[in-house]
Amino acid sequence: MSHPAQQTPDSASFDEKKVDGLDGGAPVTTTLTAGVDEPEHSEHDVAETNRIMSKIDWRVLPVCAVLYLFSFLDRSAIGNAKTAGMNKSLKLTDSEYAGALSAFFALYCLLEVPSNILLKKYGAKIYLPCIVVLWGIIMMCTAFVKNFEGLLAMRILLGGFEAGLFPGVTWYISTLYPRRAIQLRIGMFFSAATIAGAFGGLLAYGLVHIRNTSMEPWSYIFLVEGILTIVAGVVSYWVLFDGHKDAKFLTEAEKEHMQYTLAHDATATPFNTSFQWKFVRAGLTDWKVYWSLLTYISCITPLYSIALTLPSILRISLGYDPIKSQLLTVPVYIVAALLVVVFAWGADRFENRSAGMIAGTSLSLVGWAILLTSHTPNVRYGATFLAAAGSYAAFPSIVALVSQNVASTTKRGVAIAIQVGVGGLAGTISSNIFPARTAPRYELACKINVAMNAVAILTSALNVLFLYIANKKKQRMLDSGEAQRIPREVLADMGDASPYFKYRY
Rounded distance, CA 498 to CA 363, Å? Predict the structure, then answer.
């Protein structure tokens, strides 16, 4: 059956054009003759797309979630190790521990963009498992460090190898699903980060009970998590695929259907998705990327404050013993994981990312405000639920917003990498706002996180306004006939700047 007729520009009458598949694979040949409908393909409707997406879900989401679980588990294991006695064993000062936390983000921030370029070149099946295995080895080596210098080196290398996973998986998902379905998938794999917090607490609780060995209990946290990470990386090689064209579980008709759906996701004009340096430059100079970066940093600072210090907050600020502190992190993360999925489902269902972003950061703001003002342990413990759940639930929205509003896959990969890479510097903020002298209430950190959430709310609201203005400008180009005079091949290179591409909020 044929795809529904779609309105196309009148100009640029030419016969055929190769349009690269969005998965970076074989080109899809479409007849781009002016003034006629698109070519014949398999049936193009929402029900068929949803059916195929369900098949992809079962293959992609579990493995991506597991990989990100270990990514977040491994970077935040240092918080559990501290509670288990690492600082005392390594004779770390307060500033040295903060330095070790911050060191993770040195290479992590620098390598995001190069990593996504390499991912597009070599494919997810090879690239993602390789970096997972490499950082698993680094985790194992961390178990044997004897001083601050060794810990610092391992944290720098860990950040370098982990740099490619989150932006890589986000880009990978954006090449497999249409815009309307992206956030739920990002939310489902990102929920693994919150589950990692719960799993990490339970794992640390069990491992710190190991006694009568030549290794310290905290060392087992790094060793065991490193081994599990390596296993996950090896298994992922046999599960991942490089795009629709390599998905052996899809029929040829299903592959063609999904490639057509994504090529015409935002406009009847297929985009040029080949790798070209001009698309890299476009990603580096897009205002949407840098405005969203403000929201990203403002949202992730409170999130990292929870991820890196929750065990210490519960132990020092609320007065619980080290073992109980590990266990009490579990329900906090479980609630946060559930809210991530609920918010992500709502964002896709109502096709509105910004509302969830504002709601989540508002919830987090309330949580940190209670931590700042209350002196009652049980009330403060309840506030950690709000602070964690709000930040974690809001986070996928800002990532999905960039993914759905950048068209070219090369430009999108760069945009996501800039956001995650530069935005990851917020981790250095979170790492340094909990000095021991501010314990037990950590008023400085609470004030900063309240302010960050307020900035996130403001920038999210303004982003909606800016996108609305941009869409109105595009509509004027359509109404005046200016858009119809743009040659078809030029439109293919314009990507999201095309007047036929409408931004979503």
Answer: 36
